[in-house]
Structures are given as C-alpha cells and as structure tokens.
Amino acid sequence: MYLCFDLLIFLWLKLFFCIEINASVDEMKLTGPFLFILATLMIDAIGVGIVFPIVPDLMDRVGAGSAAEGALWGGIMMSAYAAAMFIFGPIVGGLSDAYGRRPILIAALATLAIDYIIMAMAQTYWVLLMGRIIAGMAGATYITATAYISDITKREERGAAFGMIGAAFGVGFVFGPALGGIASGWHITAPFWIAATLSTLNMFFGFFILPESLNLDSRRSFNKRELNPFASIVRAFFIPGLTIPLICIFVFEFANMVYPALWAFWGREVFAWNSFTIGLTLSAYGVLIAAVQSGLLPQMTKRLGDYRTLIFASMAAIISLIGFGFSTAAWVVVIVMPIAALSDMAPPLLTAVAANKVADNQQGLVQGVIASLASVAAVLAPLVLTGVFGQFVDEKGLYFPGAPFFIAAVLIIAIIPLILCLNPRRIPHR
Questions:
Q1: Per residue in 193-203, pLDDT tens?
Q2: How many angstroms separate the CA atoms of 194 and 180, rounded?
Q3: Reduced to 3 states, what is the DSSP secondary structure of residue 20?
Q4: What does the alpha-carbon distance between residue 326 and residue 401 come to, in Å, rounded to a whole number?
C-alpha cells in the first residue's frame, strides 16, 4: 500500500508535469528508497502548507484579540520554527554522519507526527508555539534526506537529484493549502490530523523499506562542537571550496524569502488582490517550480552542465525580481512568474556544488549547515524585507511597494562574481 502511495507521487511528478529526465536518474527514482525520500519531503511540505488556510482561525482559537495580534503571533511562530531549525540543523546533520541516515529519518517522521497531534490538541498559544519549535527540531526530515540523496547518487547526478527534491516540495506546497482548505470545512483541527496520519504512514513505510545509505567505514564520530550551530557554520566555511557556495546559498535563500514574506502584502497593495487570488497565484507558482525543477532542470544540466545552468538561473532570478519590483499590471506578473520559477534551479545546483566539495562522511554536516543558513535567512529576511516594504508604502515618503524585490535583485547581482568563480574551468587540476 505504501509503495503504491509513493508510486503515485512519482506519477504526479512524471505525468502531471510532463517530466522527461535522463535514464540514469529515472532508474534511480524508481527504487523504493528514492521514492521514500521524495514522499517524505512532499509530505513535509504538505504538512506545512496544509495549515496556511486555517492560521487566522487558529490564532482566534487560542485567544488572539485582533487580526493584528493574530498576525504578530503567527510571525513569532514562524521565527521560532526557523530558529529551531537553525539551532538543531547542524546537530542533526552531525548525528546522521555518526549513526547513519536511516534512524534519524525515521525519528524525524515520528517527531513530526507527534508535533501535528500537539498542534491539533492545542488550546493555548504557548502550546502551539511549543509545537512549532518541535517541528523545527524535526527539520532532520530535509537535512538527512538530502544527505541520503548524496549517498546514493553519483556526483554528476546530484544537481538533478536535488532538483527532484525541490520538485517534491513544490508539489507538496501546491496540494497542501488546497487540502487544508477542504479539511478545515470538517473541523479546524482536521488538517493537523491528516498531516499526522501521512507522517505516521510514511514512517512505517520507511521503517520496512529504507536501507542505510552510509557505510560504517564512512561514518565519523559526533563532535560536541556541533552542538553549537555557529561553530558548525564557521567550521564549514573553512572546508576548502565551501566558502563561495555557502555564501551564494545564503544570499539566494535570503532573496527568495521575499516571496513568502511579502507576496500577499504586495499583491494586495499593488493589485488589490483578495485572498483567493493570492492563494491562486502562489499555487500557480508552486506548479511552475515543481515543473522546472523536476522536468527542465535535469534536461538543462544534462545538456549545459551544472555551471551554465546555474548562470542561467541566476540571470532569471535578477530579471524576475526586477520585473516584480516594477510591476504595475497583473499581466506583467503572469509573464514574469515563469521566469521566477526558472530562478529556483539555482539553490539545488549550489547545494550540489557544496556536496561535491566534501567527502561522504561530511555530507550530513554540510547539509545541516545549509539548512541552518536557510533558517538564518528565514529569521532575518522577513524582518528586513517587511521593514523595507513598510517604509516604501508610507504616504510620507517615496512610494515604491516593489522595493523589497529590487533589493533582493541587487543581492543576487552582488554575488554574480562569486558564482563566476565556480566555473570548473577556473579550478586548477591537482
């Protein structure tokens, strides 16, 4: 039954998005472990997206006195989740390098299932906050899954494989909000119970089908220094060849936060979109991202290589961010959105670059550091970008609601010289 479920996930990616990929990756995807990883990541994304439609009602349920208060509490929960991911990301990655990927993955799914049950039963804001912290701790689902993919793929396949990870997330974020909206009609807590059920089923499936991917000879001892996420990040930056890709990953993650942080506010301010339109555009964007990362990315890396594809994606990021920033008509958004989806090829390609710079027994550490950098971006970027937005929609000053998008574009432009340094032709042979 579980295998059928994972095969359905594969068919969604293959048929719905008209995916055409090279034979080697295709064969790898059809194995149980790879399908399990895709299922795990998609379920994780569904679990996040499924609660989006009910957040306002959920805040009212736990005592928010106004929409403003509810939004403030929701923002704090987002920051708490990101902070927990940041603190525990390197720890989880290091544990997977020491004890293997399989037990960490299974434990993460069990933790997520428990977290959703806590969220479903919560009657106070503080219990909800505890639930989000636990969910952040369970970020091992992503960290260890990416390390697992690094273990079972060839170096030349990792760019495409990480793209499939992005596609799985994209599919989850497309279906999650829709499922949450439908389930909320039954009961406000129904989305949490559905997410808990999916996590539990996949946990049992993984328990029976998932083999360990990290050989005993490739494991390394867990270092207490990894209890400090800052120390792990600093140490990773000193690993030869990692500094530039890690900087680029952080900047891309920071810039891409403009979409979840400001899309709703920007759409309402510039185009007077209602909630339905905002949700529809976000779902459309999720479909485009899944199609690009699972369909176009493998083809482009096959024909152009990872580096040239990365350059293409970076240019698409700059063009789309500037396009959104200066958009004054909805038809411009329709044109720019596919270009923005192309830019989402950059993070998985940079992740592949980082993964190819280290040995097998450091994959967990690197993926944990990458997750921590993404968490730092998730904490800082909304504060910075929403502050910029507030300044430029103030009637007293210059009116430029697209300013956050423009700033994000400037950040990507600033790292183009670093991306050019990743050209394999510029790396001397040893």
A1: 888 888 888 88
A2: 9
A3: coil
A4: 9
